[in-house]
Design a protein that fits this description.
about 230 residues; alpha/beta; Rossmann fold; 2 domains; ten-stranded mixed sheet; 8 helices; 10 strands; globular
């Protein structure tokens, strides 16, 4: 299958890089990274093993207009940039393209479905510690599991094939029976820890080692569960 990566940052750079490094047909949309990548390639420093998708091997583009149509598109943008998908996605879409929204939050798939009626859409939830440390340079510190679930996927076998490709690339991947349920589970983790680690300037292990912080995090989790 041919993959398109829209948003080649901490997530898109890692998952797309792993697929490309395994020999998959992957096409990357870059912005400020483009010049650096076509000169030096895409570098991924990973606990699973460092690698570089070389300049001669990487399919790098500055615009989706230049990219070929893809079987699967991984959208790894921050959700605040989803307003650009109306213009970014059409050049990549064929009659059977599936778009996987690898993002945190709720409702992204429904929003996309309203803008692209009839499109085959899935959601992806990444449990990973990965950062973009410089242009064309991703640091993968831990984990990496990607859970994928259907929103309006036309052919369930497509997600099976994506899961197999990811596993062959060294990425732990699994399929979710209920996408919405898995998104809420991710929020139960993200909402307490994302805020508290910033406010307290501490890692999750430090927070969990402090009884009062542990209790507060538990209370925040219960609030998220009640809201869901």
């Amino acid at each position: 299958m041919r993959y398109g990566i829209v948003g080649t940052g901490a997530l898109g750079g890692f998952y797309g890089g792993m697929l490309a490094n395994s020999g998959a047909d992957v096409h990357f949309l870059f912005r400020s990274d483009y010049e650096k990548v076509i000169k030096n390639g895409l570098r991924v420093d990973s606990v699973s093993g460092d690698f570089i998708v070389s300049p001669t091997d990487i399919n790098a583009y500055r615009s989706t207009i230049e990219m070929p149509k893809c079987d699967v598109v991984l959208v790894c943008l921050k959700t605040v940039s989803n307003c650009h998908l109306k213009s970014l996605l059409p050049p990549l879409l064929g009659s059977d393209t599936t778009v996987i929204m690898v993002q945190n939050g709720l409702g992204m798939e429904a929003d996309l479905a309203r803008d692209f009626p009839g499109l085959s859409i899935a959601g992806g939830m990444a449990f990973i510690c990965s950062t973009k440390v410089a242009d064309g340079h991703i640091n993968h510190a831990d984990f990496g599991e990607l859970t994928i679930g259907s929103h309006t996927v036309k052919d369930p076998e497509v997600l099976e094939k994506v899961s197999i490709d990811l596993k062959n690339a060294g990425v732990p991947a699994k399929l979710a029976d209920d996408l919405n349920s898995f998104r809420w589970r991710k929020l139960v983790w993200n909402i307490p820890y994302n805020g508290m680690t910033v406010i307290m300037d501490a890692g999750t292990d430090e927070l969990m080692g402090e009884p009062h912080m542990r209790q507060l995090i538990n209370e925040l989790m219960l609030e998220v569960i009640a809201a869901g």
